[in-house]
Amino acid sequence: MSGTRPINCIIPPYILDKLLDSENSEVRQAALDTMLLTARLRGERAIRSSFTGAAAPGDGRRTVFDCEQEEFLRNAVLARPEDGPESTDPAVNRAFDALGLTRDFYKEVFQRNSVDGQGMRLDGYVHFGFKVNNAFWDGRQMLFGDGDGQEFSNLTGSLEVISHELTHGVTDHTSGFVYHNQSGALNESMSDVFGSLVKQWSLKQRAEEADWLIGADVWTPGIGGDALRSMKDPGRAYNNPQFGKDPQPDRMSRFIHLPDTKRGDFGGVHFNSGIPNKAFYLTAVRIGGFAWEAAGTIWYEALKASSAEDQFQDFATTTFQKAGELFGAGGPEQAAVLSAWQEVEVPIRGVPTGVARIRSFAANGSGGAGREDGLAALARQIGTLNDKVTQLAKDVAELKGTR
């Protein structure tokens, strides 16, 4: 595969393919136009424009532009700078607010200064193209389509969609997960994880209170209760005549093998991201409390410590290590990480399968001395394994370095 990074889009290609089969000619045309536009943007990964009056670099300053339904950024009009007044256009204000919430989340929770960690400016372009059913991150800026008004509403209407796309930038500047096969699915999963966490953080929701849905506010406005993806139940985000059943797998035995091509979703990156998504959800609810505090910190530190070609097992092993380093070997956080990955059938290197088959995990009400003794024994066992995993990870890293 070429080293050129594809443009990141929130709407997976299999959704757009379904729209091409719609009985509604306007929906079909909007889907075709979106697919053609997406292909063009992928060929223009380095889209760059300069604007008089745009915010200066540094501290994640925001600027929102209005494309006025054109597709070329150089023609966009300045709509709202960082220090400017609120716009009369709701899409401009939604984009501005979401850019700020994402920036503030990374700053306050992880002490990260914008997407690149160096205060990268945050530029957003609303009303991009005519009835475009997608939102894009092109490596430097966010582009928002208006949607076709039937299957998608304006793409600025979902906070987690915007945070999802911006997190692709965070991944670019940390692990750099290559966008194909398992590393690409991890790339997509990181965006879903932190997109959901930004929404939870903004609402001050605990893990058990969150819906764990991606794109529910902009997807099929005429159908309630569905979403593009569900982190809690991959494969059950939607089921309707127009789009069929959500195809995401929730464990490795259901992994979807596709060609590493654009038509094959680069090896199924939007499909198989359901597996690490479910692992994060399980970790977060088993630890409890606010998901960004423990589970989110473990995932963020693991993201920074990962390599571009890492596979599911590599990342799972890194999260296990980070949980031990951050919260103590053998502690409930590390046990939650271990049991979550085992439930989605991703082994952690150096840990025998079945060590932490904990389905209820301290929240099922079945207390008692016997149960406490069992958890203590499990903690000791995991603590011992932690040392072995750490040494094994060092050995693997050295082997990678000699390639």
UniProtKB/TrEMBL annotation:
Residues at the active site: E165, H270
Record keyword Protease present: yes
InterPro entries tied to this protein: Metalloprotease_M4, Peptidase_M4, Peptidase_M4/M1_CTD_sf, Peptidase_M4_C_domain, Peptidase_M4_domain
Database matches in Gene3D superfamilies: 3.10.170.10, Neutral Protease Domain 2 (1.10.390.10)
Physiological role: Extracellular zinc metalloprotease.
Keywords from the UniProt entry: Hydrolase, Metal-binding, Metalloprotease, Protease, Secreted, Zinc
Protein species of origin: Streptomyces echinatus
Keyword Plastid belongs to the record: no
Residue ranges annotated for the Peptidase M4 C-terminal domain, each copy included: 175-346
Pfam families listed in its UniProt record: Peptidase_M4 (PF01447), Peptidase_M4_C (PF02868)
Cell compartments where the protein resides: Secreted
Biological-process GO terms, alphabetical: proteolysis
Annotated transmembrane regions: none
Family: Belongs to the peptidase M4 family.
Domain Peptidase M4: 98-172
Protein name: Neutral metalloproteinase
